Structures are given as structure tokens and as C-alpha cells.
Amino acid sequence: MNDLYAVISALLASWFLWRWLGQTHLGHIPTIGTSVPVLSYIQSLQFFKRAGEFIQEGYNKHAYNGGVFKVAMPDQWLVVIAGPTMIEEMRRLPEDIASLLGGGDQSLATRHVVGTRVAEDPDRMAFVRARVGRNIPENFNMLQEELTTALSSVIGFPDGSLFPSRDQQLLSVFTQFARDYTISRRLIIMFPNILKPIVSRVFNRTHGSVRAAYTLLAPAIRERRQKAEECLKTGRVWHDKPNDMLMWAIERAVQEGRPDESVVPSLLFAEYSTVRVEAMNFTQALFRLSANPQYIASLREEVEEALAANNGRWNKTVVTMLSKMDSFLKESFRLSGVTHTSMWRQTQKPVTFSNGTTIPSGVFVAAAAAATHIDGNLYPNPHTFDPWRFVGCVGQNSLATTRPDFLPFGHGRHACPGRHFATYQMKLLLAYIVTKYDLAMDPRLEGKLPQSITFGTFIFPNPSVRVMMRRRVHYWTSRRWE
Ligand code: HEM
């Protein structure tokens, strides 16, 4: 009898795997590895460690020959778009055909971690989109103050740049949420969509950090909300209204009549998907610079010159004059990006590209970013880190300019709206660091770049590596940061 159960279970499991990642409606799209049912599932388990390798192989074979291929992930097929021509075509697809909301949901398992409201809300980031770009001059002093405080206490990233807070308890809850999110997502994406809601009930670890964040934020939310509602009712103007992400999220909850608690998952998710990505990219750039301290003098000189030309005053003008710094950061993004893919979309209708390839509806599609960035047809000596490669290109080819050959911020209608703010903030931070500190790489690495940690399409800077920073004494005696 036991044998009979074993045979039935094996048959059911095979049928399940066959349906899950077996021959699908994507049979006409070339596969990297095997598309034989069951075997493709077994291969998909290697995706976590070897996604970069698989995508590079697909890029080498198809970027200039069809521009599309597929790779098995444990939960579904990922259709990868490769080569500038196809990426340009992808850029033009409207949201009702290729949805970022759906793609982001597939990539980050958003609905299963922070809920359907955040995952399906097309305006969840509208407040960031609308406000962040035009707030740079207004935020200058706040950004400067944040980074001075962050650097003088502990050398870290001035987190809270969109929601300034010095409350250590709150900052550690945000960090805990990011950890919980990452772990939960990793487990959830092991399973097919149909099982994800059940898996999420068991493995979603974010509830504790969401609750903890609400406990800490509730008094501020209540107070601000009361005032916002009063102003809405009476038409009174709130002159010293805070201009931060918490306030923007509260205003949306007021407009939509949602309870106070609903503010917290949106806030945590927004921070997780923006500030953390920026911090990871910045860490990679800091690793580059510490491993190559010979570049520091040029960056420092550029900052000093820009400052001198601006009568020694730090402001937005100084930051926009830093073209070497822009180039250095862009080169770091190119070679040490934090994802293998970009422009995550889910097709909402069948899409036919100009070469006749059709991608059916409901498919997870992404552009091959990291492989594009080392394509010899697009970049001469593509594997060489040339910090001044883009000097003189600011404007048409700056860090914040998206192009089919530079995809860290995506491309097209959904290109990251926070990119100007983020690049501005990173330049300001790096200017501050090179002016005030000497840098050196962790001595254990003997000047080499640390190995990043990859999980699926994501690439994380190695958290065990330390950068050594020493205050430049003469700077302190000769000039003040003001
Ligand atoms: C280095 C830092 C950052 C990187 C690498 C980055 C990257 C990205 C990427 C790849 C996308 C998707 C683009 C696409 O699919 O075409 C995106 C979207 C987005 N990013 Fe960023 N981002 C960064 C920082 C930020 C910051 C600081 C903010 C907010 C202040 C922000 C706000 C957004 C929003 C709101 C979207 C969604 C756009 C939409 O719905 O159309 N990002 N980002």
C-alpha cells in the first residue's frame, strides 16, 4: 500500500512540475538550458546562483539575433529582451500592454509580502514621482544636514533622506523590515503563483516589523492626519507642513479615506525599493574607490574647483558641476550594478515585436541590463573600469540619463523618477567623503574588489567587507563644510 502511495505521489509531483515549468505557450522562444518539463524545473534551482551566467549566455547568442530568449526560474519563465533595438521597442510599450506594476510584483513578490493594495495601486509611488524631482533645491539643506550627521556618528548611508528621522529605534525597524522582506521574498519566489498565498501565510516575516513601525509612527501619523483633515475641512493653509514621504503618504490615506495603519506598508515598501537600492549602488561605488584610491585626488580637485567657482558655497550648482564624479559613479553603475535585469514588466496582452516574435499575455519580461553594460559593441574595452569614460558627456550621457545601453534606472515611460534626486544625493555624499576623508579598502582584500553576492537577478555588495576611512586633518583646519 505504501508503495502505491509513493507511486501516486511521484506521478502527481511530476504532473505538477510538468504543468509548472513544462512546455508552455513560450515554446517558440529560445531557451537557455533545457525546456524539457521537470528537467527545466531542476535547472531553475540553479537560477539563484547562476542567473547572471544564464542571462549572459542568452545575450551572447541572441542580442543581435532575435533579441529574445527565456530562462527558467523556480516560479515561472523569465523572458529576457536583449540588444538595443529590441530594448527600444520594449521602451515604447504602453502600461496596458507591458505593465511595470505587474513586473515589479513578479520581481519583488510585492502582493505576497506587503499586500495587494500596495502591489496593485498604480499611484502607490505617484507622490514620490510627483514630488521628489522638484524638491531638490528645497531639500539641499536637509540632505546636507542628514549626511553630516550620518557620517559624523557612524560612517553609513544617510538613510531617511526622504523621511528624515534620527530615531534609532525607527531606523532599525526600517532595516529589520528590509531584511525580513528579502528573506520572505526569497522563500515565496520558490513556489508557483498558485501556491504563493499559502506560502506567504507561513513564511512572510514582515508582519512584526510592520507592526513595530506602526507602534513607533502612530502618534506622528495621528497628529499629522488630524491637522491635515482639519485643513481639508476648513480650507486653512498649513504653513509649516512637513515635506517628507510620511506626510505625502498620510495625505494619500486622507484623500482615499484609509485607516492610519495603511500608511505604514506603503512607506516601508517605498523606502525598501528606493533608498536601499541607492545605498547598495553607493556601496559598490565606495568599494571601487577604496580599491582604487589613485582616483581620489582628481575627484577631490574637481570638488575644490567647483566650490571655488561658487564662492565656497555648497549648493546644487556645485553638485551639478561635478562631471568627473558623475562619470566615476556611472562607470561604477555600469560594471558593478545591483541587478542583472531591468525594466521588469508583465505582459497584459500578446505583444508582437517588429521581428515577428510574439510574447503572449501574462508573461514576466525584463531587459538584460548587466550584459548590455559589458557589450563590446556598445562600450569600447567593456571590462575595463575607466572612471573618466563619460567625462564631457554630461547631459546626453550622464548618470541620470537613461538609454538603451544604460539601464540601471530602467528606460522609457517608467524610468526611475527618483534618479535625479538619487544621483544628486550620491554625488553630494561622495563629494563630502572625498573632501573630508582618505579611503582604503579592507586590508584583507589586498586592494582587490570584493566579490558581490548574487541571489537570482539581484546583486548585493558584500556585507562583510569594510572600507577604511580616515579624517583628513588638514581639511578641518583649512576649510569648514558649510
Ligand atoms: C540608485 C538609486 C536607484 C536606482 C538604481 C533605481 C532604479 C529604478 C528602476 C530600475 C526602476 C524601474 C524602471 C523601469 O522599469 O523602467 C525604478 C522605478 C522607480 N523608482 Fe527608482 N531607483 C533608485 C532610486 C530611487 C529613489 C531615491 C526614488 C524616490 C525618491 C525612486 C523612485 C522610483 C519610483 C517611484 C519608480 C516607479 C516609476 C513608475 O511607477 O513609473 N527611485 N527605479
Question: Which key features would you list for this structure?
Answer:
Cytochrome p450, metal-binding, monooxygenase, about 475 residues, oxidoreductase activity, acting on paired donors, with incorporation or reduction of molecular oxygen, monooxygenase activity, alpha+beta, disordered C terminus, about 10% strand, five-stranded mixed sheet, globular, binds protoporphyrin IX containing FE, Cyt_P450, two-stranded antiparallel sheet
Structural description of this entry:
The chain is α+β, with helices and mostly antiparallel strands and 482 residues long. The chain has a single domain (126-478), classed as Cytochrome p450 (Orthogonal Bundle). 52% of the residues lie in helices and 9% in strands. The strands form 4 sheets. The chain has a 5-stranded mixed β-sheet with strand order 1-2-7-4-3. It has a two-stranded antiparallel sheet with strand order 5-6. Helix 12 crosses helix 13 and helix 12 packs across helix 14. The N and C termini lie far apart (80 Å). Protoporphyrin IX containing FE (HEM) is lined by residues 100, 125, 128-129, 132, 162, 274, 277-278, 281, 342-344, 408-412, 414-418, 421-422. Belongs to the cytochrome P450 family. Residues 1-22 form the signal peptide. This is Cytochrome P450. InterPro entries: Cyt_P450 (IPR001128), Cyt_P450_CS (IPR017972), Cyt_P450_E_grp-IV (IPR002403), Cyt_P450_sf (IPR036396).
